[in-house]
TrEMBL record:
<dbReference type="InterPro" id="IPR056920">
    <property type="entry name" value="PRTase-CE"/>
</dbReference>
<dbReference type="Pfam" id="PF24390">
    <property type="entry name" value="PRTase-CE"/>
</dbReference>
<protein>
    <recommendedName>
        <fullName>PRTase-CE domain-containing protein</fullName>
    </recommendedName>
</protein>
<feature type="domain" description="PRTase-CE">
    <location>
        <begin position="36"/>
        <end position="260"/>
    </location>
</feature>
Length: 277
């Protein structure tokens, strides 16, 4: 067990903010894992995933602000920066748009950049302002289907309202490689500051025995948790491993890291936080 204690300390040294969850991590590795094969798989997830500190998140917000400023300079036009939330329900893009608004308060271009809270407000904002250069921002792209669907819906609304020549760029902090490729293939101008690969398929192959190992580890979990249905590989089989300090992990992340309920009804200590409505 000594090597696993060492590996855990190395992980916590590289990600000091995760020390808050050291007890939960220890439980996963030394209590829940029943074999070294399972422990090796957990440490593979920890090494290959993306764990973002608040400082790194703040730096990414700064990059999004600079992207907005660059678009103003590139086009010599005012722009709209919009959260990719489709409505007023709180999500990570709403948090981002507020943080960007604070960042823009220190920008000499702030009068030329209009932040708005949701895609539902975009049509009216364009009609009112005449601004047609848009930067859509979000924290995370998983499978890519959500942003593709929202882009299609909003562009349809524009067409119905006879709004033409709208230029949309999507920029996110993190994306799965697969999801990013899917969004690009749909013809959407999209960039991601960081990307992650599939935790098992891209390291061990699509038929790897690690899938059976993970399935066995999750066999003790309840199949429902709040309004979530258990998907051992994460939503859309994304196989994502991502956590952010003070953040809410997307359901694309492997449930081994955030699922909070055993099938016997007992609560399960979880490493990463996800709000379950």
């Amino acid at each position: 067990m000594q090597k696993y204690h060492k590996q855990m300390q190395e992980f916590l040294l590289a990600n000091p903010w995760m020390s808050e969850f050291q007890d939960q991590l220890s439980y996963l590795i030394f209590e829940e894992c029943s074999s070294n094969t399972e422990r090796d798989l957990v440490f593979h997830f920890l090494r290959s995933g993306k764990f973002m500190s608040q400082q790194a998140y703040n730096s990414a917000i700064g990059e999004l602000v600079r992207e907005a400023e660059a678009m103003v300079n590139r086009y010599s036009q005012d722009i709209i920066v919009v959260a990719t939330s489709i409505d007023s329900d709180p999500d990570s893009s709403n948090e981002l748009i507020y943080a960007i608004k604070i960042g823009l308060g220190r920008s000499c271009l702030q009068q030329r950049i209009k932040p708005i809270n949701s895609l539902n407000s975009l049509k009216d904002a364009i009609k009112k302002s005449g601004i047609k250069k848009c930067l859509w921002i979000d924290e995370f792209i998983g499978t890519g289907t959500s942003i593709i669907g929202r882009h299609k819906e909003i562009m349809t609304r524009f067409a119905q309202a006879k709004i033409t020549d709208v230029d949309v760029k999507v920029k996110v902090i993190l994306s799965t490689e697969e999801g990013l490729a899917k969004v690009k293939a749909a013809g959407i101008n999209v960039e991601s500051l960081h990307s992650i690969r599939k935790a098992i398929a891209d390291s061990f192959g699509p038929s790897a025995m690690e899938y059976k190992v993970l399935d066995g580890m999750c066999s003790q979990f309840a199949t429902e948790y709040g309004n979530e249905q258990l998907s051992v590989l994460g939503w859309g089989d994304s196989e994502a491993v991502y956590g952010r300090e003070r953040g809410n992990v997307p359901n694309n992340v492997l449930p081994i890291l955030w699922w909070g309920l055993y099938k016997n009804g007992n609560p399960r200590p979880f490493v990463l936080s996800r709000f379950i409505g």
